[in-house]
Design a protein that fits this description.
The chain has 631 residues and is of the alpha/beta class. It is 26% helix and 23% strand. 50% of the residues are buried. InterPro entries: 2Fe-2S_ferredoxin-like_sf, 2Fe-2S_ferredoxin-type, ATPase_NBD, Beta-grasp_dom_sf, Corrinoid_activation_enz, Raco-like_middle, Raco-like_middle_sf, RACo_C. This is DUF4445 domain-containing protein.
Length: 631
């Protein structure tokens, strides 16, 4: 079969779906549900050949007439040519790869409180050659010289290095460089090199997100970022969320497949950074990864089965350093891989990294961290105590469950404003191209704007005023035409449906309900917060006022709300260049009490209350009440 417009050809089996064939060919097709036929995002257009489709309600009559099919529900009878339309493509877009991006708040100067001492460092040794008066063994001589550099309670060396000691010392004329790595309280001699190679020592910090993978290349001599790269997590083709991936991993022994996919992604990013900088792979001596619990399990090839089964126990929350080569990451053959600790099944190393980077655990002031996304992790506390939970918001913020929803890739509407008098919609897209859908930040903007103009009521129901020609009755009920067909990349209207609004309200309601229960359970109110930190790529593009208008964020002093960008990668970098910071992350994970929202007696009441705009208790949102003149 052939995929257009790429022109990529691949063979396809009789029982294989078009989505499975695309995955094998390395093509990224939107598939939020992981190929279960539930999301309707993997739309293709058949140009040639005979196919067999399963019946679906996710395609409208006009779509079917245009030749659209769902890739996950379609097999073939013979040779086939299909087209991947723009709205089904998963391409690069708004991936936050650097702390300088957009509105990142530079309060994270607190990394200076942790001493600079990288997890892998090189020391130059000048050893006196042996004499009759000083004829200790070569290994003891090396040990003696290394210990002159620092206080090492435990110093160990593998057989691989021991076998090379005599040769390296003599070939280097007793002047060599030793690379030292850290394994808990033990310092390990990773490698020995002739001469002085101190200036060539690098490490990689990686944020393994469910949706994206971000990597930074750091010079371990000064802690500076040399290069940064990002890409979509290639596992998205097996499912948009961690549950779908766990299910896939446990079916037909697919764990190794998912493991290899994420390893390949990390290697691709490292290769790109090495190519950009001219650095040798041999000179990368450490990799540190921060990811949610499931992503860490898949990276390490650990069985994730019990993460999703009650009582929700991962195989491990804390993992020891291992050789990066053991799992296939291509750096120095002796280089070490570190994974930041998780707290529970749904609060992982990305959140412990975020707590480190935010400074919550180093301050006496009460603060909250919200990672706005599919998993919706929240942390509250200060330097004395920390409590966390995960409020599953679902995929709506990533475009799932929304007819024209999509990730923040090229052509996604990311900003929306509506003139309430003339009902004119103004929008901005990622890449400044013709719109082909709407991403999370645009969806929340749209919800707030429609509420302000009276197009929807506080329950999210369309009010259908007669004078508004953008509101109409569609095949699935009332819908709002955001962009007419003549202005879109696909030649069809981009709309917001009643179902879309309901899914968005549930998503924002889950986040707010989680935050509300967390803070009330500790005997505080939102007004007691000194800082409310918003992290994650999606959070980076939020409009604060509009997020409060719909009730995603609490109505507090706007100065308290701080965007901290990709706190996972920033925390990972801090730990990579500071053994003290790495030890502090371990302490943070130990401090954090995991709160299971799903079994909390008040969660359902809080969630239902939050399923209004902005909330059933309008008194909790005084600025919104005033702005909208609500009673």
């Amino acid at each position: 079969m052939k995929f257009m417009p790429d022109g990529i050809e691949t063979k396809i089996g009789a029982e294989e779906t078009l989505l499975e064939a695309a995955q094998r060919a390395g093509l990224y097709i939107n598939s939020i549900c992981g190929g279960d036929g539930l999301c309707g995002k993997c739309r293709l257009i058949v140009r040639e050949g005979q196919i067999k489709e399963k019946p679906t309600t996710l395609l409208e009559r006009d779509d079917i007439l245009k030749g659209y099919i769902l890739a996950c529900e379609t097999t073939v009878f013979g040779d086939v040519v299909v087209e991947i339309p723009p709205e089904s493509r998963l391409e690069g877009g708004q991936i936050v790869i650097d702390e300088d991006t957009q509105r990142f708040t530079r309060f994270v100067g607190k990394k200076e409180i942790y001493g600079f001492k990288p997890l892998a460092r090189k020391v130059y040794l000048k050893s006196p050659p042996p004499t009759l008066q000083d004829n200790i063994s070569d290994l003891e001589r090396l040990d003696r010289e290394i210990r002159k550099q620092d206080n090492f309670p435990i110093l160990q060396m593998g057989l691989h290095c021991i076998r090379r000691v005599s040769k390296v010392l003599r070939n280097g004329h007793w002047q060599i460089t030793a690379t030292l790595g850290v394994r808990g309280g033990t310092t390990e001699v990773i490698q020995l090199e002739e001469g002085d190679t101190q200036i060539h020592n690098y490490g990689v910090a990686v944020d393994i997100g469910t949706t994206t993978v971000v990597a930074h290349l750091l010079d371990l001599n000064n802690g500076k970022t040399v290069d940064a790269q990002a890409m979509y997590n290639s596992q998205v083709r097996y499912g948009e969320d961690v549950i779908n991936r766990i299910i896939y991993a446990t079916q037909d022994n697919h764990l190794e497949e998912l493991h290899q996919v994420i390893v390949n992604d990390i290697n691709s990013l490292i290769t790109a950074m090495v190519g950009n900088t001219g650095i040798k792979l041999h000179d990368i001596t450490a990799v540190l990864c921060a990811g949610n619990t499931t992503m860490t399990h898949l990276l390490m090839g650990l069985d994730p089965t019990y993460i999703r089964l009650e009582p929700y126990t991962p195989l491990a929350n804390i993992l020891p350093p291992v050789r990066a080569a053991e799992i296939g990451i291509k750096i120095n053959n002796r280089g070490l891989l570190y994974c930041l600790p998780s707290v529970g099944s749904y609060v992982g190393g990305d959140i412990t990294a975020g707590v480190l980077a935010s400074g919550i655990a180093d301050s006496p002031d009460l603060a909250m961290l919200i990672d706005v996304g599919t998993n919706g992790e929240l942390v509250i506390g200060n330097r004395d105590w920390l409590v966390c939970c995960a409020a599953s918001a679902g995929p709506a913020f990533e475009g799932g469950g929304v007819k024209h929803g999509m990730k923040a890739t090229h052509g996604a509407i990311e900003r929306v404003s509506i003139d309430p008098d003339r009902c004119e919609v103004h929008w901005e897209t990622v890449g400044n191209t013709k719109p082909r859908g709407i991403c999370g930040s645009g969806l929340l903007d749209c919800l707030a704007e429609m509420l302000k103009m009276g197009c929807i009521d506080r329950a999210g129901k369309f009010t259908m005023p007669d004078h508004n020609d953008r509101l109409r009755n569609g095949d699935l009920g009332p819908e709002f035409v955001l962009v007419p067909a003549k202005d879109t990349a696909m030649g069809e209207d981009i709309i917001i449906t009643q179902v879309d609004i309901a899914n968005l309200i549930r998503a924002k309601g889950a986040i707010y309900a989680g935050a509300s229960i967390l803070i009330k359970s500790m005997g505080y109110s939102f007004s007691d917060l000194t800082n409310l930190f918003i992290s994650g790529g999606f959070g980076n593009y939020l409009n604060i006022d509009k997020a409060i208008t719909i009730g995603l964020l609490p109505d507090i002093d706007r100065e308290k709300i701080k965007f901290i960008g990709n706190s996972s990668i920033n925390g990972a970098k801090m730990a990579l260049i500071s053994q003290e910071a790495l030890n502090r992350v371990d302490e943070i994970a130990g401090m954090m009490t995991y709160f299971e929202l799903s079994v909390h007696k008040d969660f359902m009441d809080e969630f239902v209350s939050a399923n209004f705009l902005p909330h059933t208790d309008i008194n909790a949102f005084p600025s919104v009440e005033k702005a909208l003149k609500l009673t």
